[in-house]
Amino acid sequence: MKKLSTIIVVGIAVAAIIGAAFALYFFTSSENEKSFAVTYYKNDEKLLERTVPAGTSITIFDDMGNGDGLGRFIGWNTRSDMTGKMLLPGSQITVKGNISLYAMTVGAGVFVIILPDEQTGYSITADPAIVIGGGSSILSYSLLPSHVDNELVITVNGNPMKLDAMKRIHLTNITEDQIIAVSGVFDKREHSISLPDDQRGYVLRSSAEKVHHGESYKLEYTLLPGYRETYDFGIRVNGGDAKIPSGGVLMIEAVMDNHTITVTGVEPAEYSVSAGKNTKALVNGAPASKATVEDIVKIIPDEGYVIPDSFNAQIKGELKAEQGGYRIAGNVVFPSVLKITVGDNVKIDGRSSNTVFLCPEDTIRIVPAAGYSLPSNYADKAKNLNGVRYSAERFSFSNDVVLPSIYKVTFNGHNTVHATFYVVGETIIPLPAKNPERVGYYFEKWDVSSSLCVVSDLLVMSIWNSMAHDVYFGPNLLVGVDGKYYLFKEGTSEPPRTIKIKSDEKVVIKNTFDLPLPNGYGPQGSEVSYRNGYYEILGNCSFPGVTYVNYFELDNGEGLVYSAIIGKGYNIISEPTENRDGYFFTGWMCDDKYVSGQIILENRPYIIHATWKPIGG
Length: 617
Fold this sequence. Notes:
Elements: E1 35-42, E2 45-53, E3 57-59, E4 72-77, E5 86-87, E6 92-94, E7 99-106, E8 110-114, E9 122-127, E10 130-132, E11 137-143, E12 147-148, E13 153-156, E14 159-161, E15 168-171, E16 178-183, E17 186-187, E18 190-194, E19 202-206, E20 210-212, E21 217-223, E22 227-237, E23 249-252, E24 259-268, E25 270-274, E26 279-283, E27 286-287, E28 290-292, E29 297-301, E30 319-322, E31 325-328, E32 332-333, E33 338-342, E34 346-348, E35 355-358, E36 366-368, H1 378-383, E37 388-391, E38 394-397, E39 401-403, E40 406-412, E41 417-424, E42 441-446, E43 458-466, E44 468-473, E45 477-481, E46 484-488, E47 498-502, E48 506-511, E49 524-525, E50 528-531, E51 534-537, E52 541-543, E53 546-552, E54 561-565, E55 569-571, E56 583-590, E57 593-595, E58 598-600, E59 606-614
């Protein structure tokens, strides 16, 4: 093989070819109807010939005929004597005529120095270009006067290298092919890229503000939401024909002068605007059903309504909040604003206000006020209202709604709560399944109609019929029954000792001696209630008669007088409360008999005399 003075390759992408299947990749198409042949040779044998249209960019194939024992394949050369351009598998070339490619091989332990294919503005050479393993080579670099290399980077197999004072790079102990790449060399001439100042409805960016002569740059175009492209849309360079970007990117190749970029055919799109219940959509203060992204759409609630915090989250369509309104970028449906009011003794999620403003997707939980409970049928009653939905213990709405009240209905049995119900407002009052009971009375009814609709808290009282009871009264009693008085004297039977008294009649008991009743005095037998100075008779009973015990402590007949209950034990006091000068107390006498301790009283008064003896007599 002849010595290779220049081996040029730009970019390496090795495409593995399995068997005899080869793929030809087309990246651009030429409108020229001419076609040219691309032919691959190895060892003077034609391996493959393809015909492609002129201007087509093709990818160079990998080795063909691996394992033929003819040396290590390193690439293709455009000349059979190997003095032409070297092309590596995976590199690309544009077909402008017939192309013949000849396989290049080297023996075992031999390596090549692969230089850049296109050396624009500079020159780099390798001496030697083919090296036996372990050998050396020198790279020599020079810059053309028309170019600058302030950003020069030279890499060998991807590793950055430094030039010495002679602008050389020494490669030593070479044990693999050396792939050389050069970047950062530019034409001294620069051209400016000027984009439109007022980019209305789109964003256009350039990959550079300036480029070197002959270089390329990229324009990235984005249509903003809310705008559309018209029939004359396009991007123009220096007023030339409009170009349509592909995928938002436009490549401007081989710049030779300053570029002024203009964009035509972009205008705001018009979209529909729909306002929900109890609101109006305004543009520039006037009702609007259509708007563009350049308009500010304001939503104004009707009088008596307030826009809730959840409003924005329920808007359907593309927009953003701005300047107290909205800029839209598509058809937009604004949600309704609904007024939800709850009745008495009901709270919304525990809030203090009984009125809230919601949007249709909002949900609320209804809770009773303190001291109340939610009736089991509350949700069913509320669901029957127009525009109310209920799920997972929460309500949602499509119309304004007044939710029902909750009321407490208390049934008083007799000074006690017999039953309590929490009912939905405007429903018929419930009645307890079981009637209350009261000693001494028959339950008659509740003081309310069973067909009454509840519109407030209710206290329902019980109505009773009193029972009549047999009541026995002993002697010496003055008895008042609801203002009618009976005198029961000792030794008489008029009136009869036993009379009928109803439970609701007030009975007042006094004795005939104008003395307080004895301590512990009360009826015997059934239950009797005593309150505020009178008795309430709740069953058959008897009131014992009373007598009095008069103590004469001194000879003048003075002493204590006590009332006492006939038939009960009575304890005689131990000694007089008064002392007699010169005497000592010797005991009490009644009916000429000494008495002491406890005696059983009979139906008569007792006169008890103190007895005395002289001291020392």
